[in-house]
Amino acid sequence: MKDKKSGVLIRGVGRALSLLAVTLLSLALILLGIIWVLEKGPSPTLTAAFCSSVRETSALRWMSRIFLSDEELGAYIQESTSELDTEPVNTSLIHIAARETGTAETDAEPELIDISYGNCRGKMLIVPDPRRVVLGYAGNFVSGTGLQLTDMVERCGGIAGINAGGFVDNNGLSNGGIPTGIVICEGKLVFGNEQGRYNVIGLDGDGVLIVGTMTPAEALEAGVVWGVSFVTHDGIASSLIINGQVQTQNLGRGVNPRTAIGQREDGALLLLVLDGRGVKTLGATLENVVDILQQYGAVNAANLDGGSSSVMVYGGEIVNVCASVTGPRSIPTGFIVLGEED
């Protein structure tokens, strides 16, 4: 009797495993069918958007090569812009009120607003006084691990923050401790090759946003006090707007969660995080990002690390919808908004 029950149990487990295997195989075939349509279907525009989107990620870049040869894929990969020269930021276009005047601009608290633009959803934090924004970082950038943004904001004594520069990702499995490019803190190069040229996103001592391709020495000469780097996996540069001019060569076609920073003529910083990879929104293109930032008056702007790293913290809480299935990622750097000075 006992052997009979054991046999029934074994057969039941076997059927369950067989059903699971068939289900997984069916799902895999459906997924492959969808990818085939996206890559080999009749719409080059859809193929370009799909390839650009997955190639911007660390973990899913391989998907762009499932059905496309290198030659076919090449038609959908933008040429790298990371080494192209950029126009220097004209700091005279930005007019920041002096702190000692006690003006409404410098006394005003940051304003958190909801963003809804077409299919894009997210948050923007408008920081009237850009001098309240500094760069937070996780550790020694060599053997240490990254920090979740909530912890980074708390450690800096901040009230808000967004993720900042890129980092070594190891197919989406890194600990977020090693940046890519450079990191400048308190006017000193703390990470990066002095001889390299990087896509720099930084703030000078007056709170002016400095963006463009430059060497560390040029960044420091431009007065950058807090700075990071970011460039996409395919080498699309981070500059989005310089001196009011859209950098169209950097507007990649991918749709993903985004983080960006911009600055208005009055000096207010625009910290933007757009959600993605969810039911309500797949994400945003960089053209969408530029459109939104221009609507809010951005004179200069840059793209920061995005995807599953895109996160905004305000009041100790994450206020956007993080795309990472495992929760907020550990990151090496973040732009942190400090509380009002006593």
Polypeptide structure, described:
The chain is α+β, with helices and mostly antiparallel strands and 342 residues long. It has 2 domains: 2-74, no CATH class; 91-338, no CATH class. The chain has 7 helices and 17 strands. It has helices at 2-40, 44-55, 70-74, 104-107, 149-155, 216-221, 286-295, and strands at 111-117, 120-127, 133-137, 158-163, 183-185, 188-191, 198-204, 209-214, 224-229, 239-242, 245-246, 258-264, 269-274, 298-304, 312-314, 317-318, 333-338. It is globular.
Shape: globular
Strand content bin: 25-35%
Major beta-sheet overview: 7 strands, antiparallel
Structure classification? alpha+beta
Radius of gyration: 23 Å
Order of helices and strands: HHHHEEEHEEEEEHEEEEEHEEEE
Our count of helices gives: 7
| Percent in helix | 10-25%
pLDDT average, as an integer?
92
Low-pLDDT segments = none
Number of domain units: 2
Q: For the largest beta sheet, what order do the strands appear in spatially?
A: 1-2-13-12-14-10-11
